[in-house]
Design brief:
Length: 274
């Protein structure tokens, strides 16, 4: 069974306008999913539904093969989220305190807790900042601590809700490197990236694209980015190489998506010399 199932899900707020309109999909255990779409398309709403922060008006959601209405406290504690704003996530006075918070709520013994904190901070390259206060950290470092706080809890599902959108390029690179590393270290961990960054989408095995509160595309990032018509429909700009190949094809250059950038450069030179 899939780890997450949405079946004909509708959700509307007080205005009566559907934020999600008949949305259905399956996410398998160990998937790394990109969830994309324009602002207001329903991406973050899906994340909140997965965390049981919202309930659908109509339709069914199953997580761990259970209806979300029947999830136990233990089930809910297997799902975590890294939010958009790194400044809004710190709970403790220090990095170590922040990672310890969730462990304390699970009654982890103090001696075992110290070991877990060190292990997880090391995994996100933040062990040297263990006793730092949040004000000493960059945005990227704060997000890495938020990731450590999640993986310390041995979660089954982590939702990243535009977790890099407020970071500088260095912070984005650092956080994405850490996400890839924790996924490599835990093949069974299911990751959902809610993002506007198409380069991040390339690291996922599947992408769900929302348009007008409905799912417009489910498939691999590669097939999506090769489909110029679909990219235009959902109003996204593909990553650099895909955009370049589309533009070159439009003007008659014989290039392929499988070509390396060096080969593409050679083909451009030959085309210009004709």
């Amino acid at each position: 069974m899939p780890i997450i199932q949405f079946k004909n899900v509708y959700l509307s707020y007080d205005e009566g306008v559907n934020v999600l309109d008949n949305v259905s999909f399956n996410i398998e255990k160990g998937d790394k999913i990109a969830l994309i779409g324009e602002n207001g398309s329903g991406k973050s709403t899906i994340g909140k539904l997965i965390l049981s922060l919202l309930k659908p008006n109509k339709g069914e959601i199953f997580i761990f093969d259970k209806n979300i209405n029947n999830l136990s406290k233990n089930d809910k504690q297997k799902i975590g989220m890294v939010f958009q704003n790194p400044d809004n996530q710190f709970i403790g006075n220090t990095v170590a305190d922040d990672v310890a918070f969730g462990l304390e709520n699970r009654n982890i013994p103090s001696k075992e807790m110290d070991k877990i904190i060190d292990e997880k901070l090391k995994e996100v390259d933040m062990l040297e900042c263990k006793n730092y206060q949040p004000s000493y950290l960059s945005g990227g470092q704060k997000q890495r601590v938020a990731i450590a706080s999640n993986i310390a809890l041995d979660l089954s599902i982590i939702v990243f809700d535009e977790a890099t959108s407020m970071l500088d390029p260095k912070g984005i690179l650092e956080v994405n490197k850490i996400i890839s590393r924790i996924k490599e270290n835990n093949k069974d961990l299911t990751i959902i990236l809610i993002t506007h960054n198409m380069e991040e989408v390339l690291s996922c095995n599947k992408v769900f694209a929302l348009k007008n509160h409905r799912l417009a595309y489910i498939g691999t990032p590669d097939l999506l980015f090769k489909n110029k018509t679909m990219c235009e429909k959902i109003n996204i700009v593909p990553p650099f190489k895909y955009s370049l190949v589309h533009k070159l094809k439009d003007i008659g250059v014989d290039v392929s998506f499988s070509d390396s950038l060096d080969i593409i450069k050679e083909k451009i030179i030959r085309w210009e010399s004709k």
